[in-house]
Amino acid sequence: MVDWLSKQPGDASLSADEAADRLIAEGNRAEDAGELLQACELYRRAAALASRYPKAHINLGIGLEAMGDMAGAIGSYEQALACDPANPAANYNLGKLLYARGELPQAERLLEQALRSRPDFPDARIVYAYVLQAQGKLEAAAVELRGALRQRPRDVGARAALFHMLEAKGDLAGAAAELEAVLKEKPDWTEALYNYGTTLMKLERDAEAEAALRSVIARDPGFLRAYRMLGNLLHRHGQVGEMLQVCRAGRACLPDSLELESFELLELNFIESVSADALSGLHRSFGERLERAHPQPFKFQRDRAATQRRLRVGYVSGDFNYHPVGLFMLPLLEHHDRKRFEAYCYATSTKVDDFTQRLSARADVWRDVRALSEAQLAEAIRDDRIDILVDLAGHSGVPRLGVFAQQAAPVQASWLGYLNTTGLSRIQYRITDHHCDPVGLTERLHTERLVRLPNSQWCYRPFVSVPHSPTPPLERNGHVTFGSFNQIAKISPATRALWAQILNRLPDSRLVVAGVAEGRAADGLRRDLGAAGIAGARLTIVPFLPVHDYLRWYDAVDIALDPTPYSGGTTTCDALWMGVPVLTVPGPRPASRSAASILMTVGLPEWIASTPGDYVQRAMEFSREPKLLSSLRVSLRERTRASPLMDEVRFTRDLELAYREMWRRWCEGVPA
Question: What are the pLDDT digits (tens) for 623-633?
C-alpha cells in the first residue's frame, strides 16, 4: 500500500482530488498562521487542479471571504454548487454570506438546502434561524434554534441567539431562562449578564436586575451600557441621588464618556438644589466638548432664491412608539402641508409597537436607523438632503446629539422631548411657547435661539376615548382627594414636603399617586409622607396600569398636584381631559413650567401658583369650593377640546411658519 501523505501534489500517482487535498491542507496551515494571501493561492491551485472538487472551491471561498473579497467568495461558492448543488457546506457558506449582505430570500433557500442535505448541521440551523428572524418569522426561527440546541446543547451562542428571538417575540420569561442556561455554562460572559439584567428589568424583577447590573460593573468597570441601564432602574424607583452616584462612578472609570455626561445632565433636571444657571453652564460645557469631538461639521451652500421651495424636515427620535413624544407627534405628521413640507422620521430605538406603525404610516419617509453609528446617521441625513433637522430627545431617551454636532442639516432645532438647552451651538433653535419660556426669563440659559409658537408648543390628542365621571369625588366622599400621575422621579423631596403641608392642613383629605411600582419606590413615598405626619391610610398608591385603567383613576381625584422642579406635560393634558384641574408652581427652568404653559393655553391661570406657599394656600382654597370643582368636572373636557391645545391644524400651521422663518433666515445668511 502506498502512503499518500508521502506523495507530492504533482506526483502522477495522486488523483486530482488527492492532490487538491494536499494543497488544501497546506492552505489551512497558512491560514492558521495568518498568511491569507498564501492560503488563497494554494486554494486557487487546488481548485484549478480539481475543478470539479467542491471542497477546493469552498476553501477558496472561505479564504477570499476572510480577505474581504465577497464577490470572489460568492463566485467560489457558486462554483462548488455547480459541481454539487446539494453540497451542505457550499450551501451553508453562501447562505451565510448572503444573509450578511441582506439578501434574505436567497439565503433562506440555500440554508434550507444545506439542512436537507445534512439535518445534523447546527451551524447552518443557527444561521437559518437568523435569516428567519430577520424576515419576521420569529416562531419558525425559535423552532430552528431549539433544534440546534438539541444537537449541541452546550452551544452558548445558539442560546444567546434564542434569547434575542424570544425577547423579540415578547417571551421575556423564556428569554431570561435561556440566559440563565448560558450563564451556567459561561458565568464570566458579561454581555450575557448585562442582557440578563435588562431582561429582568422588563420582567420587573428589579432587585435581581440591579444585582446583575452591579455585577457587570464590578467585573468590567468600563461597561458603559451597564451604568446607563442601572441608572434607568434607579430612576424609575425615584432614586435620583443614587442614580447620579452611579453615573458619576461611571464617569470616573470612563472620563471621556460624553454619553454618561449627557445622562447625568438629564437627571440633574430632577434636582431642585441645582440652580438654573448652574445647570445651563453644565449643558454648555457638554456641548463644547461634543462639538470639539466633531471639528469639521458639514457645510451647506446657501441659496437666497430657495426660501419658498418645498422643505424637507427630518425628525430624530428614540420615542416613535407609545410614548409622550410619539403621542404628540402623530397630529403633526397627519396635518403637515404636503405641498410645502416633506416629513422624514429617523427612528433610533429598538422599541417598536403598534403606535410605531401608526406614526410610520403618516411619515413621507421612515428610516429605521437604530443600527447606524452617529457618523453613519449624519451621513444618511445629509444624503437625504434634509433642510431642517429636529431633535426630539435632547439628553433623554435615546439621545443622538452627536449627529447634530456634525451639522447634519443646514438648520437644526430642538423640540418636545427635552425642556432645556441641549448645550450645542450647532442646534440653532429651541421651539417653545411664551408661557413655558416667557420673554426675558430663560434666554440666558440657552445656547439655542428660542422660537416661541404663538399659541402652544403642545398639540394634545387623547390616546384612547374614556368617559369621565361628571361628579367630583368630593361630592361622593365628603373629603377632597388630591392626585398625581407623574413618574416617581418627578416627586422630589421638595414636592413631597409641599404635599405633606397640604395634607396636614386638610386633615380629612386624601392623596392618590398613580404609576408607582410597589417596592422601594412606593415604600419610600410612604416613608417620607409618614415622617411628615401623614397616616398611611390617607395615601393610595396605584401601580402602572394599561392606559384605559390609568385614565379611569382620574375619576377618584378632585385636584391634581403638579410636581416641582420637573413639571408634568402629558399627565397635565390627561387630567384636564378627564375633568380634573391641575395646580402647579412654576420655577425658573423651562422643565418646571410645562403645566403652567398648558394651563394658560386652556385658560386656567388661577391654577398657577406664584410661590410654594401660594401653592399650598391655593390647594386649601380650591378644596373648599365644591361648586367650582363640580363645574370644572363637566366643562374641562370641552374647554380643552376647544382650546389651541387640541387645535391640530392650527398648531401645525404655527410650527410650519416657524420652520419657514428659520429657513428664510438661513438662506439669507441672517444669524440665528
Answer: 999 999 999 99
